[in-house]
Request: fold
Amino acid sequence: MGINEVCLFFLSAFAYKAKKPDSIRYNSIVLVAQQSSWGESMGIRLTTQERMAHLGGLEGWQLVEGRDAIARRFVFDDFNAAFGFMGRVALYAEKHGHHPEWTNVWNRVDVTLSTHDAGGLSQRDIEMARFMNTIVPFQS
Reply:
């Protein structure tokens, strides 16, 4: 990740939080969108067979009961490590225009992935889960 991506992420977040004029918000969002490498087909809901095939290769991830989603709990040594993980994932999410549902309590980050536009699990979720697994491999 380059400094431009870091600055872009924080500019986008700042413009939204500070409720700056629409032109600032719009410009930062356009820059993020232009860097996105996701194809339109990535937002299509996976079939049951595709879902099960992908889940077999995603250590630590499980289907969420009652939802078409996957989830994993990440546990770190301390808050700083957990927050660092979230920062890396946030940069990835902004670049790819796909954001996780997550909560953080001290050293723990609980993540749920589902594509709202697709109405359930899509290739976007699988790719994001793979990215997270490259940062923090599954430890039983």
